[in-house]
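step: validate -> pass
step: tokenize input -> pass
step: predict -> running
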Amino acid sequence: MGSEIVLDLFPWLKVYRDGTIERTAGVEVVPPGLDPQTHVFSKDILIAPETHVSARIYRPNFLTKHPKLPLVVYLHGGAFCVASPANPNYHTSLNKLVAEADVIVLSVGYRLAPEYPLPTAYQDSWAALQWVASHKEEDGNNETWIKDFVDLDRVYLVGDSAGANIAHHLALRIKDSDPGLNLKILGIGMIHPYFWGTNPIGSEFTDGIRKELVDKWWLYVCPSDKGCDDPLINPFVDGSPDLAGLGCDRVLVIVAEKDILKDRGRFYYDKLVKSEWKGKAEIMENEGEDHVFHIFSPESDKAKSLFKRLAAFLNQGMAVGV
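step: predict -> pass
step: emit ->
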């Protein structure tokens, strides 16, 4: 009986009757180091020893201390329950992003549900932002790649899927933090963001199979009494923070035409544009592609186009002298 599957969260994991969890995707890892294709260098660092929150940090291999580069705090996807910065797909994709955008990337290794239930992923990601901000203080942390090569006045949050969801909530928390986080977030790049809701919209009406899958994923990682209308996953239910409170100047929302989550991403963009938020929002659609295709096929032409668009977004501040 212990080997009986009681919940199959395809394609991520299986839960057995005895409580055993088998992750069936996103478990592969690769070491950091010099990538011979992009000439990007990476290493693993420990951010919070007490919680074992870690990160993989990336930089172009040939650097000088001037000018300093923007920092991208990257939050990986995986429905809050799989994947890591060491996953080969993420490692390859971030090497390509760093090479294209000429930035430093800190890919956060937050702890995963269900072993660490939500809101742990949000708390760990916030701890990573606090760690970054501490580099502005004389007695703060002293990671040399950040101290020597990062312009801490040009920091971005970027995430795909669940990571884009986390980025949204971090940007809200930044503005409301007390005492305030000593860090300015210039913008958020939200790739195929993982937002949801109980009542279907758009293609969710006709794609019942995938809607049921997404329902199951969320109810498993966040078994709250609010279900799929928990403010963590549905930013537009009663009790959700106002979008006017986003603590950044620019937002880029990227959606994919075949993605079951695309209508939520478009809805988020529309609501943001119509809100009292004072920043600039942009949207891009990946035609003919599905959810996080660029992670699984980073060599494709459309993935390269996505990286170029994201790189342009990250470098806008240099063009306008921010």
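step: describe -> The mean pLDDT is 93.
step: cleanup -> pass
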